[in-house]
Amino acid sequence: MSDVQYAEPDNLAGVFDALERYGEEARLLAGGTGLVNLMKQRLVQPGALIGLRRIEALRGVSRQDGALRLGAMATHREVETSEVVRAAAPLLAETYRQVATVRIRNVATVGGGLAHADPSQDPPVALVVLRARVVLTSKDGTREIPIEEFFTDYYETAIAPDEVLTQVLVPPQPAQAGAVYLKFLPRTADDYATVAVAALVELAADGETCRDARIALGAVGSTVLQATAAAAALRGQRPTPEALREAAEQVRALVDPVDDYRGSAAYKRDMAVVFTRRALEQALARARDGAR
Amino acid sequence: MATKHHVVTRVNGEEVEFLCEARHSLLEALRETLGLTGTKEGCLDGNCGACTVTLDGRLMDSCLVLAVEAHGREIQTIEGVASPQGLHPVQQAFLEEAALQCGICTPGFIVSAKALLEREPNPTEERIRWWLAGNLCRCTGYDKIVRAVVDAAARMAEVKG
C-alpha cells in the first residue's frame, strides 16, 4: 500500500474541506471495521483517510421530534444497549445485538455500517421495516432519503462524493404492532446471515384484522429487499396461519440469492420462505401480546 | 518516505508514544513498534479474536483499529492483566483448568473473559458463550475455556468476599 494521508477534523466543515482537498482519493473513516478490512484486501486503496471520531455532532442516540435519532458515529453497541432505543423501537436494539461479535459492535458505527452497504448486514433489514430515513449533509445543505432508496446496489449507496451520512431518523414502532428480526445462522452465532428477515405486523383496533404488515429480507439479493407483495397480501386480512403461509410464499419470486458456503441458492430461496413465515408468526404473536 | 504520525497514548497504565503510518493497525503498532507481542495476530479480519485488547475500556479487535486512532486513548493488553502480586484469577483459572493447548488464542480469550467478568461478575454459561463468540480456538474446543471462566468468576467473588 502506498502512502495514506490522515486527517481528523473537529467539525463537519473540516470534513467538507478535506473531501474537497483530497477529492476521489478520500475515504471517510468511521469505526473502520469495514473499511480497514477492504484496505487490507486492497479492494479500496485510499490516498487519504478522514477520521470522523472527533465530531461531536455525529455522536449519540436520542429522541428528536418524536423520531429516534441515531448519530452516524453511534456504535452498534450503543444502539443495542440504549434505553431510548429499547423504548421507541425494540426491534432495532434486538437487531443490532445480533451483529457479529461484541468486539465488532463496540467499534462499528451506524453510519459506517450503512455506508458499507454489504447486503448481508443485519441493521438495514430492520431499518427498512421501521421506515427509517437517512440524512446526508454536504457543504450545500442537507437531504433526507428513505433507507430503501439509500442502497442502490451491492456495496453501492446514494451518498454523493461531497456528502457525509450524518444521522439516521427512525419513527417509533407503532403501539399496536409486533416486530421481529430473524437471522438464520446454520454455522456460528457471529456469522453473517444465510437468510435474514424482519417483519412487523400491526393489528387494527378490533385486534383481529391486520392493519399493516411490513417485511424485508437480507442476504438474498444485491441490496436489502422489501417484500411488498407479501405485505400487501396481509393488509386488511385476518392473519390466519394459512394467510401467513400464503403471504410468505410470495417472497420466493422476490429473492435472488447466490450459491456460497452458507448454502445453495435453491436452499436459501426455500429458507427465505420459511423464515418469512416464522417472522410473520412471531411478529403477530408479539402484536397480540402487546409485546411489540 | 511515507508520512509518519506521532501517537501519544497509554498502554497498561503507562504513557507511551510512537510513530506510525496511517495505514498501520493498532495490532502492528503494539507488536512491531512497542514489542508487546502478547497480543496475537490471527485472521487479520476481525473473525478470530486473537488480537483482542480494550480501548477506553471497550473490547475490540486491534487488527481492525488504526494505530493513529489510539492517540489520546487508554489501551489494555494481555501484558497488563497480571499484577506484580501474581496472575489474575482468569489467568490462574485457565492454567488450572488446562483451558489451552497451543496458546495462540489464549490472550484474546483472557482479555475478553476479564472484560465480561468486570461487567457481569456472575454470568450464566450461555452468557459466557455468547460473549466469547468470535474468540476462536482451534485446539481444545471450548468446554474447558468456558469452565475456566466460570471458575474465575467464583475466584473473583471469593476475593471480593
Question: What does this protein structure show overall?
Answer:
The complex is a heterodimer of chains A (292) and B (161). Chain A is globular. Chain A has 3 domains: 47 residues, Uridine Diphospho-n-acetylenolpyruvylglucosamine Reductase, domain 2, CATH 3.30.43; 115 residues, Uridine Diphospho-n-acetylenolpyruvylglucosamine Reductase, domain 3, CATH 3.30.465; 113 residues, CO dehydrogenase flavoprotein, C-terminal domain (Enolase-like, domain 1), CATH 3.30.390. Chain A contains 12 helices and 14 strands. The mean pLDDT of chain A is 96. Chain A starts with a strand and ends with a helix. With 292 residues, chain A is α+β, with helices and mostly antiparallel strands. In chain A, a hairpin with a 2-residue loop joins β6 and β7. In chain A, the strands form 4 sheets. A 5-stranded antiparallel sheet of chain A has the order 4-5-10-6-7. Chain A has a 4-stranded antiparallel sheet with strand order 11-12-13-14, with helices on both faces. Chain A has a 3-stranded parallel sheet with strand order 1-3-2, covered by helices on one side. The longest helix of chain A has 25 residues. By secondary structure, chain B is α+β, with helices and mostly antiparallel strands. Chain B folds into 2 domains: 77 residues, Ubiquitin-like (UB roll) (Roll); 72 residues, DNA polymerase, domain 1 (Orthogonal Bundle). Chain B starts with a strand and ends with a helix. In chain B, a hairpin with a 2-residue loop joins β1 and β2.
